[in-house]
Write a structure and sequence with these properties.
The chain has 549 residues and is an alpha/beta fold. It has 25 helices and 11 strands. The chain has a 6-stranded mixed β-sheet with strand order 1-2-11-10-8-9, sandwiched between helices. Strands 4-3-5-6-7 form a 5-stranded parallel β-sheet, sandwiched between helices. It is globular.
Length: 549
């Protein structure tokens, strides 16, 4: 039976009609225990979903939906090493990388278990040796900077973690992340670095990713231009890849190559050797705490009752908002510039995982795909796109994410930041009626004629749902819990949608077409008349800026 024909769908549809006729602010006023009834704490995280358009009946029905979908069984299969990536015939073992040793020994073969331990030890020792100056660059210089080259899952997670924690923790070496091609970002970063004290890490599972390898080539040329060539250059180059053979052909030393495993998906991979930049930048202990926090949230996700299960509740509310309340997007607003890359990280995690309309059996799904995820750092968001969210009737659910440092650099600034975050969630919920705006204008001395005009401009519909997540301390453990929360949320949603969150076939077609277009741009071959891009390609070639002969 499809979901749209099930009994729970009818119940949820009926509840959605009732909820649509209610104002959140009225619900809040009538329920003095609204916050305590619709919030929960796990480890150092608080999840406040009291400003979502839900009530106890909705939560009960949603949890019944999760039961019908077999969410517990689905999560157990993933964490037990079953083949859950069905289209690629692979397990998804990112949770095992941060699980206790007894779980790793139970789930993994002896060979894979030993691979993980050996890789961890090599990463720990490399970080320690660089920090102590046992491994040095050209002219015996200490390494001070690491250039990280990758794209998508190879870079978004490490970048987010490093930016989030680097202000609160000792930085061993400075990290610089580059993904884009030909936009000047690589040139600018290189202009700030000394090649003799710089390491370059190329992260690519296939070691064939166009953008990453092109940037890697340009970095190699930068080293060579500084006189670092031959065997000397190899001590500046690290590879994280599943294809060590290709890396070896490019001159990477075996001792500076680290494995990527096909049983860890790219967007879930920061827990593997993809996290090496985090280890080099912040130290092994920080990475270990990050894993411990994630593992703690995994344990909660696997064992807690649905009604008290943070990832499950987040997933169910997300499905409720888009399937029954017609929300097509969700905004993510982290408060604090150090968390500015969270929206980028979650865009890939959510949309590449669940931006699908095909079930595991190959049939069309009858549940809407992942919403469009967007956002930016909260303070800047308030002064840009939040205008639309506040004053338009189309609701955009918002995730407010707030980390509270134990020792803030400025208590006053932190207090202002927290106040703004909470104020935004309240303003979205309560709004302001035209009558209230009119009364405020009159009380401020505005004439009745002017007030009649301005009141409509100052009115806000309110009733916009939001969730607030607070990290009670801004530690690696808490950040690991936060990332695991969202990862498990995505997996729960996929369980209910009956889709595979671990593949990404949607990116393949563009890669293939790109190869053909690149050939047309680099030679004089005739472009087929049937090509929809013939006009664009010919226009670009006529610009004569690509040295095309």
């Amino acid at each position: 039976m499809t979901h749209s024909k099930s009994g729970i769908d009818k119940i949820l549809s009926g509840l959605a009609k009732k909820i649509s006729q209610q104002e959140l602010k009225d619900v809040y006023r009538s329920d003095k225990k609204r916050f305590s009834n619709f919030s929960m704490a796990v480890d150092q995280l608080l999840l406040d979903f009291s400003k979502q358009r839900v009530n106890k009946d909705v939560i009960e029905a949603l949890c019944e939906w999760a039961t019908d979908a077999g969410v517990s069984s689905c999560m157990h299969s993933m964490m037990s090493g079953d083949i859950v990536n069905t289209t690629e015939n692979r397990p998804a073992l990112h949770t095992v990388l941060r699980a206790p040793e007894e779980v790793q020994r139970k789930v993994l073969s002896d060979e894979i278990y030993q691979q993980i331990k050996d890789t961890d030890e090599r990463m720990r020792k490399l970080s320690e040796d660089i920090d102590k100056g046992k491994i040095r660059g050209e002219d015996n210089k200490h390494f001070t900077d690491v250039l990280v080259l990758g794209i998508g899952g190879s870079i978004l997670g490490p970048k987010f973690v490093y930016e989030s924690l680097s202000l609160q923790h000792k930085v061993n070496v400075r990290l610089h992340f580059v993904s884009s091609l030909n936009d000047g970002s690589l040139t600018y970063v290189l202009s700030q670095l000394d090649p003799e004290s710089t390491l370059s890490i190329t992260i690519s599972k296939s070691f064939a990713t166009q953008e990453t390898l092109q940037n890697s080539l340009e970095v190699r040329q930068w080293f060579e231009a500084a006189g670092i060539t031959g065997p000397d250059i190899t001590k500046h180059l690290i590879a994280v890849t599943a294809d060590s053979g290709k890396a070896a052909l490019e001159g990477y030393q075996a001792e500076l190559m680290f494995p990527m495993w096909d049983w860890v998906g790219g967007r879930f991979s920061l827990w593997s050797a993809v996290g090496l930049p985090i280890i080099l930048g912040l130290g092994w202990d920080v990475f270990e705490q990050l894993r411990l926090g994630a593992g703690s949230m995994d344990q909660h996700a696997a064992t807690a009752d649905y009604r008290e299960n943070m990832p499950v509740i987040m997933a169910l509310i997300g499905l409720w908002n888009r399937e029954y309340l017609d929300a097509s997007s969700v905004a993510v607003l982290p408060y604090g510039d150090n968390m500015r890359s969270l929206p980028d990280f979650l865009q890939q995690l959510e949309m590449e995982s669940n931006g699908k309309e095909v079930s595991k059996s190959g049939m069309d799904t009858d549940i809407r795909p992942a919403p469009i995820v967007w956002g930016r750092e909260g303070s800047n968001a308030q002064h840009s796109f939040m205008q639309r969210v506040h004053q338009c009737k189309e609701h955009v659910p918002v995730d407010f994410v707030l980390g509270i440092p134990e020792c803030p650099a400025s208590a006053d600034a932190t207090r202002i930041l927290i106040s703004n975050c909470i104020a935004q969630s309240e303003a979205l919920m309560v709004g302001r009626s035209r009558d209230d705006a009119y009364a405020e204008l009159l009380s401020s001395g505005t004439t009745e004629e002017e007030a009649l005009v301005l009141a409509s401009h100052k009115a806000m519909p309110g009733n916009n749902p939001s969730t607030t997540i607070i990290m009670r301390d801004f530690s690696p453990f808490s950040l690991g819990s936060l990332i695991s929360l969202y990862e498990n949320k995505v997996v729960v949603e996929a369980c209910i949608m009956d889709t595979n969150p671990f593949d990404q076939w949607g990116v393949e077609l563009g890669k293939r077409i790109c190869s053909d277009i690149e050939n047309y741009l680099s030679c004089s071959d005739k472009i087929p008349d049937s090509s929809p891009s013939k006009g664009l390609i010919e226009y670009i070639k006529q610009l004569n800026k690509l040295n095309v002969e």
